[in-house]
């Protein structure tokens, strides 16, 4: 710790090993650890909290491999493990009814940087915190399963090789659930050791020796194992100067390819000293394109949100690798300065490859991956979202087993499964298509797509995931998603484990017009009574308001007709709701007639009665325990939004172009604005740009009701545009209450076809005469140019004449329209020669 505790005088004498210094312990991933004797204090009850400061030297390939604080064992599963790995992913697992229940964050921690981490258990809920912010949450149902093992810091209590590589400091264990506010307020504060519920407190300030004192319970102090004096290192402290980018939250990936955009980033002062007036740099595809000065003072621990003052037009790029970083002189930790995000280009229909050939295995690649994306804030004009999934074989060949896998949305610290599939036996297969329109509200804004394949070999699978956007107007476009059950391992048929799913009560929103039940469920485990749950044909019941409204037969009898045929293994056999090499398709039931707006709907799912006579006091040695994977939702639908949404959209911009006496004449800029939210908005600011230069800015003194469309006209000076170059006219609409900055700008290009990455020559040896003329021109081209193509286009960039030249030196043009035009001749080496010609009236 940075600040040393004031210890009672008597305790100081008793604990003479303590010294007045700031130290911590370095764990080198070689099974060195700190052991604390077992005690009921360390058993998880209804409430429990673990905290620590960590500074990782290396992230292990999976989050469960880097143990921070553990008390875990296998066979039967019992205890807990707090750990980190996988590119900065935090994980907490606890055994409930002797079955592991895990939550994990998305990757958000840096190497060689101090992070405060915490895991909190509170009456059926688990939460993870990183640097004071909630990073993951999950539920559990049942009784925590504890064990008699010691607590270990830096390594697993019960699993070899699960070790932390880095420094750990200030470990705290509580038998109460600490709040987010408490975690933040006291993270860098010293404790007395006598705080309510505090059962372990290791400041680790000894700096020497083979023990570290538990100031909350000195009799339960820690013993260093396989550690040396050199493992005592400097403990957690603030660097004096340290600032970095923490989040890129805009623009969304679809808008980048469609319109000009601005970037929104969050910057945090990680240091002890305030900072001010430092630059933020914007890079696109490796090139610096902009820098923004953060003005004013940023206090220690404070964050600020920055929106770029510049509009970026990236619509012509096939993909955009964006990096945004701070550049503060004297920054002590450059590792957290930058943040990168890749913007893949959707296809012309708006469909996007989310995961592209990403390997999942039980080796360095890992079973779990995260893909960070920024989705649109609003899917207006989209009727359906379809997810297509396929797997290919790595160089070592496909995995030999049918293993469960899933795609989840990880947002605001909560993980929700949206698609499940099962891998085939040793064969590339797919795509499998699942309608994910019910999850539109999840697929908005900044989110992470988590892909997981349970695989236990080094080869595994190469995963592909596409999100197809189906345009159209949905009758009920807005959803409200209610999670009923989210269980990856629901034990079935063990007399010692309660398998009755808890009923859920959902209050139906006043604007809901329809509702349906959606469940993705699959049975697993074999070698039991009736070969459950994988090969056991069971029928369960959907119960609403105490009435059975549907029988759900969990059985897939058409596995032999699977398009992924000729697999190895038992792919032909029928199974409990799934087939090898196929998606697990959801079971749905319409509940519209049963719902009453403003009233509570009670939803239950009752499993068919079953007892596994071979599974009493299950010990996992001779068969696989029967269990279900269950993710179920109540989905409400409406033609009205469920939440207030303020948004103005700059729908389009247009500039009329004409010619008079052979010269270009430009009309006014016309911009169309629409209120696409459900809130009344007033007096937006409209900014007009040409080629990045601000032409004018005005306040549109008007009130716009939801759904209203307005056209605004802005007159420009005669010399505002240059007829010899492409003019990129941007219009930006801004309003303080606007929640979506991704659709605030639109672009209109005058002379669009003048834009090119190739060289344009305007002073060329090519002769075009007479000029002006009545439309007939002679073109003489020097032979060394080796001309290939000739195009004539008007001031709007529309091609009016096009010829192949194939190296010829002469050509004749007949332009049958009055006005000003451009003649473009492309040489074999790619150079484009540009001439302006004028056609007079015939």
Which helices and strands appear, and what pairs or packs with what?
Layout: H1 9-14, E1 23-28, E2 33-36, E3 47-56, E4 67-73, E5 78-85, E6 89-96, E7 99-104, E8 115-122, E9 125-130, E10 133-139, E11 151-153, E12 165-174, H2 180-186, E13 198-202, E14 211-212, E15 222-225, E16 232-234, E17 243-250, H3 253-256, E18 264-269, E19 275-284, E20 287-298, E21 303-307, E22 319-326, E23 338-344, E24 352-360, E25 368-375, E26 382-392, E27 404-411, E28 414-422, E29 429-435, E30 445-453, E31 461-471, E32 478-491, E33 504-507, E34 514-524, E35 538-544, E36 547-554, E37 582-583, E38 587-590, E39 600-606, E40 627-638, E41 648-660, E42 663-675, E43 681-682, E44 685-690, E45 693-699, E46 703-704, E47 709-714, E48 727-734, E49 745-750, E50 760-761, E51 767-769, E52 776-780, E53 787-794, E54 799-804, E55 810-814, E56 819-827, E57 832-839
Parallel strand pairs: 50-57
Antiparallel strand pairs: 1-12, 1-16, 2-11, 2-15, 3-8, 3-12, 4-5, 4-11, 5-6, 6-7, 8-9, 9-10, 12-13, 14-15, 17-18, 18-21, 19-20, 19-22, 22-23, 24-31, 25-30, 26-29, 26-31, 27-28, 27-30, 28-37, 32-40, 33-39, 34-38, 34-40, 35-36, 35-39, 41-42, 42-47, 43-46, 44-45, 44-48, 48-49, 51-52, 52-55, ...
């Amino acid at each position: 710790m940075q600040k040393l505790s004031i210890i009672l005088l008597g305790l100081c004498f008793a604990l003479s090993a303590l010294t007045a210094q700031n130290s911590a312990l370095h764990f080198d991933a070689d099974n060195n650890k700190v052991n604390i004797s077992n005690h009921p204090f360390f058993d998880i009850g209804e409430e429990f909290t673990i905290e620590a400061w960590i500074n990782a030297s290396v992230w292990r390939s999976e989050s469960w491999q880097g143990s921070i604080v553990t008390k875990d064992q296998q066979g039967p599963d019992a205890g807990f493990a707090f750990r980190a790995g996988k590119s900065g992913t935090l994980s907490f697992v606890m055994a409930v009814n002797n079955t592991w229940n895990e939550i994990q964050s998305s990757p958000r921690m840096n190497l060689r940087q101090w992070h405060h981490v915490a895991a909190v258990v509170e009456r059926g809920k688990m939460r993870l915190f990183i640097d004071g912010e909630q990073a993951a949450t999950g539920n559990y149902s049942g009784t925590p399963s504890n064990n008699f093992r010691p607590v270990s810091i830096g390594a697993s209590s019960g699993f070899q090789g699960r070790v932390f590589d880095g420094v750990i400091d200030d470990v705290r264990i509580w038998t109460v659930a600490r709040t987010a506010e408490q975690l933040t307020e006291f993270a860098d504060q010293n404790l007395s050791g006598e705080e309510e519920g505090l059962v372990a407190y290791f400041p680790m300030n000894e700096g020497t020796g083979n023990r570290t004192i538990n100031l909350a319970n000195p009799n339960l102090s820690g013993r260093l194992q396989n550690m040396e004096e050199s493992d005592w290192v400097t403990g957690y402290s603030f660097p004096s100067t340290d600032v970095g980018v923490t989040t890129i939250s805009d623009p969304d990936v679809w808008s980048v390819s469609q319109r000009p955009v601005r970037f929104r980033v969050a910057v945090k002062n990680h240091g002890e000293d305030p900072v001010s007036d430092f630059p933020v740099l914007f890079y696109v595809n490796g090139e610096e394109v902009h820098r923004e000065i953060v003005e004013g003072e940023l206090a220690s621990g404070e964050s600020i949100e920055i929106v770029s003052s510049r509009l970026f037009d990236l619509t012509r790029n096939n993909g955009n690798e964006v990096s945004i970083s701070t550049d503060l002189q004297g920054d002590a930790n450059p590792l957290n300065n930058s943040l990168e995000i890749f913007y893949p280009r959707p296809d012309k229909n708006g469909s996007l490859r989310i995961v592209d050939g990403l390997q999942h295995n039980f080796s360095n690649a890992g079973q779990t991956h995260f893909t960070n994306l920024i989705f649109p804030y609003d899917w207006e004009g989209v009727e359906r979202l379809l997810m297509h999934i396929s797997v290919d074989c790595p160089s070592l060949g496909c995995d030999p087993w049918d293993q469960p896998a899933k795609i989840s949305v990880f947002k605001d610290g909560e993980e929700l499964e949206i698609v499940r599939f099962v891998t085939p036996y040793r064969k590339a297969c797919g795509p499998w298509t699942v309608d994910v329109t019910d999850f539109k509200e999840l697929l908005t804004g900044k989110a992470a797509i988590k892909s997981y394949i349970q695989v236990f070999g080094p080869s595994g699978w190469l995963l592909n995931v596409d999100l197809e956007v189906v345009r159209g107007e949905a009758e009920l476009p807005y959803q409200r998603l209610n999670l009923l059950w989210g269980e990856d391992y629901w034990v079935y048929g063990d007399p010692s484990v309660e398998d009755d799913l808890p009923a859920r009560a959902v209050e139906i929103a006043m604007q809901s017009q329809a509702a349906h039940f959606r469940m993705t469920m699959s049975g697993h485990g074999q070698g039991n009574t009736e070969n459950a749950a994988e090969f056991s044909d069971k029928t369960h019941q959907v119960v609403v308001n105490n009435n059975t409204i549907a029988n759900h037969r969990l059985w897939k009898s058409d596995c032999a007709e699977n398009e992924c045929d000729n697999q190895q293994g038992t792919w032909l056999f029928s199974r409990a709701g799934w087939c090898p090499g196929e998606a697990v398709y959801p079971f749905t039931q319409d509940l519209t007639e049963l719902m009453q707006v403003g009233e509570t709907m009670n939803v239950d799912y009752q499993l068919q009665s079953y007892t596994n006579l071979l599974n009493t006091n299950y010990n996992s040695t001779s068969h696989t325990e029967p269990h279900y994977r269950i993710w179920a939702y109540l989905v409400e639908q409406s033609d009205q939004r469920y939440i207030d949404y303020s948004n103005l959209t700059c729908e389009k911009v247009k500039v009329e172009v004409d010619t008079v006496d052979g010269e270009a004449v430009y009309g006014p800029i016309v911009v169309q604005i629409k209120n696409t939210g459900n809130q009344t908005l007033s007096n937006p600011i409209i900014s007009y740009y040409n080629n990045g230069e601000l032409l004018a800015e005005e306040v549109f003194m008007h009130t716009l009701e939801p759904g209203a469309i307005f056209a605004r006209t802005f007159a420009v000076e005669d010399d505002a545009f240059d007829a010899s170059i492409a003019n990129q006219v941007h219009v930006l609409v801004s309003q303080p209450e606007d929640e979506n900055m991704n659709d605030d700008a639109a672009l209109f290009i005058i002379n669009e076809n003048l834009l090119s990455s190739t060289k344009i020559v305007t002073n060329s040896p090519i002769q075009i005469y007479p000029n002006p003329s009545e439309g007939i021109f002679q073109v003489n081209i020097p032979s060394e140019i080796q001309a290939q193509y000739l195009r004539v286009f008007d001031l709007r960039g529309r091609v009016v004449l096009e010829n192949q030249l194939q190296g010829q030196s002469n050509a004749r043009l007949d332009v049958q329209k009055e006005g000003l035009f451009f003649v473009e001749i492309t040489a074999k080496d790619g150079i484009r020669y540009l001439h302006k010609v004028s056609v007079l009236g015939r």
